[in-house]
Structures are given as C-alpha cells and as structure tokens.
Write a structure and sequence with these properties.
By secondary structure, this protein is α+β, with helices and mostly antiparallel strands. The protein is about 30% helix and about 15% strand. The protein is built from eight helices and nine strands. A four-stranded antiparallel beta sheet has the order 1-2-3-7, covered by helices on one side. The chain is globular and about 60 Å long. The model has no long low-confidence stretch (mean pLDDT about 90). The chain binds zinc ion. Zinc ion binds next to helix 7.
C-alpha cells in the first residue's frame, strides 16, 4: 500500500491495543494508544479525509487505508484526486513529537498580534506564506485561496508590506473561512459547494461578480478575484513571463 509509510514499528504493532483518543496538529491526525507506547499517525496532505464508521456501516470499497477496530467499527482514510499523497504510519511518541516539532501555531487559533509577528519574520508572498506549515499549521492551497479572497488581499502581496489593519483582516479571514469550511464539511458538503474561489476559474466572484482568475504553478494553482484582491491587475506566472520576455 503506497499510503503506508513506516515499517518499524509495523502497523500490526497496534493489534490488541486501545486508542486513548484523537488529536489534530495541522493536517496531522494522531491516535495515541492508551499504554503510551505507540501513536498512529495520519498525514492528510491536501485531499485526505478520515472518517469513523460505526460497526456495520457502509463505507467506501477501496479506501486508501482502513483500520478495523475490535467492535467492527472502522477508521477509514480516503483521498480525492489522482495524486495519492496522504500517509499513514505507526510511531513511538517521541518520534512523532520530533516529526511535528517544526509546525507553526494552529491557524484556527491565530490572533492578529501573533499573525503579525509571524508575518514580519520574513518577506514572503501571501499565498505560499499561508500554505507554509512551519509558519502556520493547517492551511492548504484551497483555503489559502478562500482566505485571501475574504481578506481582499493579493496572493502576491508581501507579508512585510501588510499594515496592521490588513493583518487584522487576514486573521479575521483565517478564522471565518476555517470555521465556514468546518461547518460545511460537517454537513457533508463536497468541494464544489464548499469552495467559493478555489477551482472556480471564470465563475463570478461571490462578492462582486468579476470572473475568478488564476495563476498556474507546477504544483498548485492560485485562484483570486482581480477586483476584490488585486485592484484589477491580472497576476502573471513569473517563470512563464520571464521565458516570454
Ligand atoms: Zn470579487
């Protein structure tokens, strides 16, 4: 199974143990065993989704990963899209702590003051800054698009150029968008219903009606509203425009 990442300890080391609970850190889900010896770790990456199925409940036929519990309940990992990136592994607690040490504070709890401090550390474009798990944990490509649209900020704006009012707007947008996403996902909404900007090329902006634009990169695509976010400017893929010049 491509999804499985570790061999030592093997997944079978979990047999006969009980989980003490579940914890999330960024896009990492942690399930420690109640004897304190092992942690099941699931890294969702961008498209991984984890569900718990009650005993006897119908689930997907070919999940990326399935863990059957003693009572017949199942922990199921599925992954949308063609690229399978989510990872599953069993670790000793100290190993997983070391692995997650580099993560920034949880995005959903971030306050404007702390966000301002993080933003001022280096000058970076906002879209990659929001996606950087070392700066803030828990925001991926899609939500970077949603958050920047709500904050009315350009994906190319530099972190150090933001004034305190813009930082406050960004903090508010992170909070509001992650809460909106969570609520929709809890109601079972799919990507199409959840996102308002991400993957919506040429569809009207939900705020102003301007067609959503995009900039392509190798690994991801930025979506934005030229009216709300860039004062009408169309952003160029910098590598491509360099080649064309
Ligand atoms: Zn707009």
């Amino acid at each position: 199974m491509a999804t499985l990442k570790t061999f030592d300890p093997p997944l079978s080391a979990l047999e006969g143990r009980r989980f003490a609970g579940a914890r999330r850190r960024g896009k990492h889900l942690l399930f420690p065993t109640d004897d304190g010896e092992l942690v099941l770790h699931i890294h969702l990456m961008s498209a991984g989704r984890v569900r718990f199925l009650e005993p006897g409940a119908k689930g997907p036929k070919t999940p990326a990963f399935r863990l059957r519990l003693e009572d017949g309940g199942e922990l199921i990992l599925t992954e949308g899209g063609p690229k399978k990136r989510a990872k599953v592994g069993v670790f000793r607690p100290e190993e997983i702590e070391a692995e997650l040490e580099h993560l920034g504070p949880e995005a959903e709890d971030i306050q404007a003051e702390e966000l301002g401090e993080i933003a001022r550390r280096e000058s970076r474009r906002l879209h990659p800054f929001l996606r950087d798990q070392r700066a803030l944990a828990g925001i991926g490509r899609a939500w970077s698009n949603e958050i920047l649209n709500r904050a009315k900020l350009s994906p190319y704006a530099l972190t150090r150029d933001l004034d305190s009012e813009e930082i406050a707007r960004l903090a508010e947008a992170i909070d509001a968008e992650l809460a909106r996403g969570l609520e929709l996902r809890e109601r079972g909404a799919n990507d199409k219903k959840t996102y308002r900007v991400h993957n919506k090329l040429a569809e009207p902006c939900h705020v102003c009606g301007t067609p959503i634009a995009r900039v392509d990169f190798e690994e991801h695509t930025i979506y934005y509203c030229p009216t709300c976010q860039t004062e009408g400017r169309i952003l160029k893929d910098r590598r491509l425009s360099r080649l064309l010049r």
